[in-house]
Write a structure and sequence with these properties.
Bound molecules: ligand BJW
Shape: elongated
Order of helices and strands: HEHHHHHEHEEEHEHEEH
Family: Belongs to the sirtuin family. Class III subfamily.
Helix content: 25-40%
Structural class: alpha/beta
Strand content: 15-25%
Distance between the termini: 25 Å
Number of helices: 10
Catalytic activity: N(6)-succinyl-L-lysyl-[protein] + NAD(+) + H2O = 2''-O-succinyl-ADP-D-ribose + nicotinamide + L-lysyl-[protein]; N(6)-acetyl-L-lysyl-[protein] + NAD(+) + H2O = 2''-O-acetyl-ADP-D-ribose + nicotinamide + L-lysyl-[protein]
Radius of gyration: 18 Å
CATH topology of the largest domain: Rossmann fold
CATH class of the largest domain: Alpha Beta
Protein name: NAD-dependent protein deacylase
Keywords: Cytoplasm, Metal-binding, NAD, Transferase, Zinc
Organism: Mobilicoccus pelagius NBRC 104925
Largest sheet: 6 strands, parallel
CATH superfamily of the largest domain: TPP-binding domain
Length: 252
């Protein structure tokens, strides 16, 4: 399964050409070729000694908000400093061409789909840039200082309403998804001709249940991922390719 294939499998090309509506479910692998590390198996960062999943949790925040904030500040700087890749651009181009309606539901907290020109139906795990109070939930409108060099601790800004620390507007384990986001993604998986699942390990729920929900409704599901995932066995077609090679080839 190691080799990735930039040639569109004919059955996938047929599905894509015939679809009037396409729902694209994206995960961290979508942004990998932009230079944003994926969650599982990211190497070589300042944070290697930390478990990203432990940092992205209410417990991590309660134990050490300065550590967690420094990690998110680093990721905000990283996300701002990279560009959408050919895969993000291909999805925007597909929608702009007008032959099909392209609906995107993403787990990613970056804004690379939007910066490529796509409308995103749902950011089911929130947004890196929607900073809000950790106590009273008020949106934070002040400046967020991003250090030029990554640091391992950084004091979060204080809420303008109540004076407590602010936190990134993302969804940690055990937290509820943003209101309506998951329902919108479910609807998009039911009222569609094709679901493409791009760059997700399929480990995190409830997002990982979306491909099954689509298939249960008779919608064909295609996985685009260079590696085997938890979802691979349950989809109709698997295409072992990266987002930035597969999507342009599919949309061309
Ligand atoms: C490429 C590529 C290239 C590489 N091209 N591909 C049902 C069953 C069991 C457990 C649960 C359940 N329902 C809920 C749960 C609990 C929990 C959960 O899912 N646990 C599991 C781990 C078992 N879920 C939750 O807690 C969720 N909340 C919830 O359900 O609320 C209701 C509730 C409340 C209380 C109790 C119970 C229920 C919330 C989940 C929040 C996830 N948050 C994170 C952090 C977000 C903020 C941040 O970014 O810092 O979201 S965790 C992290 O994982 C992040 C990601 O969005 C998410 C998914 O990761 P993703 O995108 O799949 O990335 P990777 O790294 O895992 O995979 C990358 C893939 O890309 C790989 O496959 C590569 O091969 C591929 N790839 N290069 C294409 N170039």
């Amino acid at each position: 399964q190691a080799a990735t294939d930039p040639v569109v499998p004919p059955e996938i090309l047929d599905l894509a050409r015939a679809a009037r509506r396409v729902t694209v479910l994206t995960g961290a692998g979508m942004s990998a070729e932009s230079g944003v590390p994926t969650f599982r198996g990211a190497e070589g960062s300042l944070w290697e000694e930390f478990d990203p999943i432990a940092l992205a949790s209410p417990k991590g925040w309660d134990e050490d908000p300065e550590l967690v904030w420094a990690w998110y500040a680093w990721r905000m700087g990283l996300a701002r400093g990279v560009d959408p890749n050919a895969g993000h651009r291909a999805l925007a181009q597909w929608a702009a061409a007008g032959d099909a309606e392209v609906v995107i539901a993403t787990q990613n907290i970056d804004d690379l789909h939007e910066r490529a020109g796509s409308d995103v139906l749902a950011h089911v795990h929130g947004s890196l840039f929607a900073v809000r109070c950790s106590m009273c939930d008020a949106p934070y409108t002040g400046e967020v200082d991003i250090p030029a060099e990554p640091v391992q601790r950084l004091e979060p800004p204080l809420c303008e309403e109540c004076g407590e620390y602010v936190r990134p507007g993302v969804v940690w384990f055990g937290e509820m998804l943003p209101e309506g986001a998951f329902d919108a993604a479910v609807d998009a998986c039911l009222e569609t001709d094709l679901v493409l699942v791009v760059g997700t390990s399929g480990i995190v729920y409830p997002f990982a249940s979306l491909p099954d929900i689509a298939r249960g409704h008779g919608v064909p599901v295609v996985e685009i991922n260079p590696a085997d995932t938890e979802l691979s066995e349950g989809v109709d077609h698997v295409w072992r390719a990266t987002a930035a090679t597969a999507l342009p080839a599919l949309v061309e």
